Amino acid sequence: MELRGKHVLVISPEAWNDVQLSKHHLTRALVARGNNVCFWGPPEKDGPRLSVTGDAPLRHVRYRHWFRGVNRLPLPVHQAYYRHLLNDIVKAYGRPFDMIWCFDTTRMQWFPKGYGLRVLHLVDHDVLDTGQGLIRDADILFTVTEPLRQHALALRPEAPVHFLGHAIEERWLQDAEALVDAKAQAAATVAYAGHLRSGYVDWELMHAMASAHPELPFELYGPYDLAFQAPFFQAFRQLPNVHLHGMLTTEALIPALRKADILLVCYRQHELGDIVANSHKLLEYLATGNVVVASYTRTYEGRADLVQMASERMELPHVFNRTLEHFAQLNDKAHRQARIDHAAQRTMPRLLDRIEELITRLDEARNNQW
Fold first, then answer.
1. Burial label, 20 (beta-carbon count in 10 A; 0-12, 13-18, 19+)
2. Is residue 2 one of the residues assigned to a domain?
3. DSSP string, 32-85
4. Do residues 298 and 181 make contact, with C-beta atoms less than 8 angstroms apart?
5. Number of folded domains in the chain?
6. 311 pLDDT exceeds 70?
7. Is 175 inside a domain boundary?
8. Which residues pair with 265 in a beta bridge?
C-alpha cells in the first residue's frame, strides 16, 4: 500500500495545539506526502458535541464526551459508544478512511472493523495497561522502543510488530553541513531541553554536575514552575550558573541548542526503567552535531560514537567529567559528522518510507494467503 493519496484518521493523546510532538510531526509528514489527514485529539470539556473543522488536506476532530466515565463501562457499551462516535466522524469528514493510525491507548481501547487499516503506534510505556485490546486488534504495530515491541509480542506472538524508533523533523537538519566543523576545544556551555516540571529528571544529579562546575553555564529550555517541589530542583535552579529560559518555539530552540557545547539528558532511569529507553530529544541533540552526555538510554547502548552514556545512575557525573576532559576529541569533525549523519538517517520522510515498505509487505503476505 502506497502512503500517498490516502485518507487517514490520526488518534492522538495530545491536542493539535499542545506542544508539538511525534504525533503532530508525523501528521504533517503524511500531509506533505500527499495524504488527507483528520487529526483526532482528546475530548474538550466545553467543546462541541462533534465537528470536523478545517480544510483538506488537514482537518481536525473536535468533540466532547456526552457519556461520563465511558472508559470504565463494560466492554460492549464502550465498543458501542466508540462505534457510534466513529460513524459520526466519518459522516462529518465526508468519506470513509483508508486507515486509522492510533497513538492513544487511553481512550478507544479497541479497533473497530470496517474503518480501514488499523495501525497502532506505541510510544508510551506508562499507559500500556489500557492498550491491550488495541494490541490484539491492530493489523500492524510500530513501536519507538524494543521493550514496547517485546510487550506487544508477549500478547500476540505472531503479530506484525516493528521497532522503528523515533524520527526527527527535517528542520533540525537544515544547513547541517555548516555544523560539522567546530572550533571549540573546550566546553563553555551546557544545555538541556525538555519539560522542567517533570519528575522524570534526576535533579539531584543535575545539581551535582552544575554545582561541581560553577564555571559552566547550564542553559535549560522548557516549561518550568518555580514552585515545583521535586527533590533538589529548588537547590539546582538557585545555582548562579543555572539559567531557566522557558519554552521556546522549535525555530528558536534549534539555534539555542546548536550554540551549546554539551547537550545533557539526565533521567531517573534507575526508577523509570524502560519508560526512558529511547528519549526523542537524543535525536534532536545529535542533529546539532554537539557532544551529548546522557543517563542510561537502552536504545543507544554501545554507541559511544554518538552518546557519552552512564551505565549506572551515579556514574553520570563521572561521565560528564570525563567528557569535559576529552571534549576536543569528542568534538572533532569526524564525531560531529557521525552524530549528524545518524539523525539524518532518521527523518520523518524516511520513517514513512520504512512504514510504507512494511505495510506493503503485510498486504503481499495477506494476498499470498488467498
1. middle
2. no
3. HTT-EEEEE----TTS-SEEEES-TTEEEEEE--SSTTGGGS-HHHHHHHHHHH
4. no
5. 2
6. yes
7. yes
8. 294
Cα(325)–Cα(317) distance, integer angstroms = 13
Q: Which residues contact 124 (CB under 8 A, 6 or more apart)?
A: 13, 105
DSSP string, 171-183: GGGTTGGGGS---
Residue 150 CA, distance from chain mean position = 19
The domain containing residue 30 runs over which residues? 7-167+347-369
Instruction: State whether 141 and 281 are in the same domain.
Output: no
pLDDT tens-digit readout, 19-40: 778 899 999 999 999 999 999 9
Q: Is the pLDDT of residue 108 over 80?
A: yes
Q: Percentages helix, strand, coil for the chain, rounded to the nearest 5?
A: 40, 15, 40
Share of the chain above pLDDT 90, in %: 82
Q: How many CB atoms neighbour CB 256 within 10 A? A: 16
Q: Does residue 216 share a domain with residue 356?
A: no
Is 135 found in the same domain as 200? no
Distance CA 99, CA 90 (A): 12
pLDDT tens-digit readout, 274-302: 999 999 999 999 999 999 999 999 999 99
On whether both 20 and 76 belong to a single domain, the answer is yes
Burial letters for 137-150: b for 16+ Cβ neighbours within 10 Å, e otherwise? bbbbbbbbbebbbe
Instruction: Please name which of 223, 221, 262, 216 lies closest in space to residue 239, comparing C-alpha atoms.
Output: 216
Residue with cell 495524504: 35
The CATH number given to whatever domain includes residue 128 is: 3.40.50.2000
The verdict on 299 and 358 lying in the same domain is: no
Query: Is residue 131 domain-shared with residue 21, that is, in the same domain?
Result: yes
Interatomic CA distance for residues 219 and 243, integer angstroms:
5
Is position 228 within any domain? Answer: yes
Same domain, 205 and 306: yes
Confidence check: pLDDT of 236 > 90: yes
Residue 105 sits in the same domain as residue 182: no
